[in-house]
Amino acid sequence: MALCGIGWSPSVESVEVVYFNGNLSTRLIRQSPMRLTGKHSYLNQRQYWGVRCSSASKAVSPMESEENARSALLGSMEEELEHVTRFKISDFKILDCVSTGLGGRADELIFEAIVKDTKSPLYNTRVVLRRHNSAQAQRRGKRAIEVLKKLVHRRLMYHSYSMQVHGYIFSPTSSGRCSFTLVHGYHGSFSLRHWLQQSDWLPTLEATLVLDEESVRRVGDDTVGGPAVTRQLRLIRLLMRDLLIGVNYLHSHGLAHTELRLENVHISPVDRHIKVGILGNAADFYEKDPNSSALDNNLDRRLMMIAFDMRCVGFMMAKMVLRELMDPLIFTRFKSFLTKGKDPSCLREFLLKILSRNSPSGNTGFQILDRNSGAGWNLLSLLLATKPSKRISCLDALRHPFLCGPRWRVVPSMDIIRWGLGSTAVRITEEYIYGQPQRSRLAHFIELMEMLNPHSKPKNWLELLPGKWRLLYCTGRHIGLTLRQPPARVLISDVHLNVSRASKLNTNLSFTSNIGFTVMSGRDWPHAKTGTDGNLQVDSLFRLTAGRRLYLKEENTTGRFTPGPSNIQDSLAKKFSGRKWRKAIPFKEFPSSLPVAKLASGDIEVIMGLGNPLTQDIDAARNVVQEVRTQLPPEMFDLSKFVCGTYVDSRLLVLRGVNGSALLFTRSCVDESSR
């Protein structure tokens, strides 16, 4: 840079002009009138020059000017970073290892060192030196020190849940550039991602966290037949609770981490706490711009930043529980499911088709999330909610049943109760053991879901009902093959009900029943489930109106008419009076009616497609259709037999037929092209 035409008033004793990193700054040592004129041109932005002008007529050499500028710059740095220690590189013994697990970037150089200064309180302590090479990296390092200054009044809390920042090394180099190195705590070379990628990660982490012998004995060990699922669930609860406490500490002090991921989280073997990474990218909730100091803007900014952090926590939880998501390809499909706007409450239905094939962990993650009536899936869906306003906060997540366990008793909300009822019903259907006890239990759960239906008005159904639903269960008919000898051996695949809406102004809905099946021929059909594929499609239009479902009692009827479901209602009334359901069900007695969404059907169109050679044999095709109709509920063939909808949410649907049977559906979010 060329600096010329400098002029000053004689009354000014000292004027200091410093050019550093592309910024021209002027410091007045004494306040007095001054006139400064000049122009400059940039020859090399990486160099900085200092010119000291004083009233004395003594000439200043370039070497002295450079040294003075360095001293002034270091003095200003010490004023800004006075709450931490300034070290010298000679205070450390550099070790011959680079910490690859500390989340370094391309513009950072990370290596380990030991403090050898005997006067330092950190003498003989291992630390990490994070050298920031670029200007952007240096801003991150200084930002980490600024965050420490904001949280210094609760230093113990900060040190418990975040990497401790000891100080910095700041010195100009011979090339004219300034070197800034951050000195922070060492908590091992492994991040949480490195821990989870180890083959023996579970016993190693248990040993690192120094879990007491009583808890290990109570849970058991894999070598003696102990449940591995329980061990992993306990460990994930410890890690998640520690992580949420640390993130909540930042949020309560007006900061968002913005870089929460497994690579930036470490486990300290000293205090056995999770340490979130260096807070170099921590953002303030409140903007510093005086023109945007409106309360609404600050509130929106705060909610968006908290929601972003909670989404990152959700990704971390998903990877900790479902270790298959460590694979970048599978995680990309997982993220694309969310970025497409799919409801995260349907994650189980989506991942069931992806992770169940040749799973190396034996679906341990599914077992963990399925426990306690699917509480883990509920927490994961709240952390990854599509709308930021719907995401759960740290405090609410700490009170969630999935993280509390049996020792911390929490009162479940009505949403948790509904979720538990639906998840339990889905798990029973997946077991595919439909004896009388299972069928009775499923009928009870469906009745309870209908009583707790959160969306009883037709306007809510118009928003939630459109989509693709997969048939799970029918209370009126056993779905699938039985012990009888059919004329045609037909294996039913997925049965879907597609609901679409022509426009938002129209209340008419289009229902399409898609039934896929395989006709097995030959003697080896019990072992080889192959054959001719077929498809049956039924279309109909429906009009949605409000209605009510009446519960008729036997004493209110006359003659020989006796309603079939009365025994179910009587047994439900007895269950409601018990202690288990007294707090869950908001009714003191069994209601006489419930609001429902009434379905009025129009014309029906049936289309069937069969492959060769069934198309050449009319009798064989007739037998196939008859067998398909025998195995499936009649409502899927004659859509006009659907009378009303009694339960709907983002993932489950219950429709009632004219004969009183209930059909349970789950929302299907599987991408057919990705199979």
Short description:
Keywords: Plastid, Transit peptide. With about 675 residues, the protein is α+β, with helices and mostly antiparallel strands. The protein is built from 19 helices and 23 strands.
Mean pLDDT: 75
Main CATH class of the largest domain: Mainly Alpha
What is the CATH superfamily label of the largest domain?
Transferase(Phosphotransferase) domain 1
Distance from N terminus to C terminus (CA atoms, Å) equals: 62 Å
Regions with little confidence, pLDDT below 50 for 5+ residues: 1-58, 220-226, 554-566
| Strands, count | 23
Rg (CA only) = 34 Å
- Percent helix range: 25-40%
β-strand percent reads 15-25%
Keywords: Plastid, Transit peptide
Subcellular location: Plastid
Pfam family, one: PAP_fibrillin
Protein name: Protein kinase domain-containing protein
Task: Write up this protein.
Residues 92-403 form the Protein kinase domain. Its main location: plastid. By secondary structure, the protein is an alpha+beta fold. A hairpin with a 6-residue loop joins strand 13 and strand 14 (274-276). Helices cover 35% and strands 24% of the residues. The protein folds into 3 domains: 82-185, Phosphorylase Kinase, domain 1, CATH 3.30.200; 192-410, Transferase(Phosphotransferase) domain 1 (Transferase(Phosphotransferase), domain 1, Orthogonal Bundle), CATH 1.10.510.10; 436-443 and 453-553 and 569-667, no CATH class. The two termini are 62 Å apart. The chain contains 19 helices and 23 strands. Helix 7 (228-252) packs parallel to helix 11 (364-383), helix 8 packs antiparallel against helix 11 and helix 14 packs antiparallel against helix 15 (436-451). The longest helix is centred in the middle third of the chain and has 27 residues, at 295-321. The protein has an 8-stranded antiparallel barrel with strand order 16-17-18-19-20-21-22-23, surrounded by 4 helices. A 6-stranded mixed β-sheet has the order 6-10-11-9-8-7. The protein has a 3-stranded antiparallel β-sheet with strand order 3-2-5, covered by helices on one side.
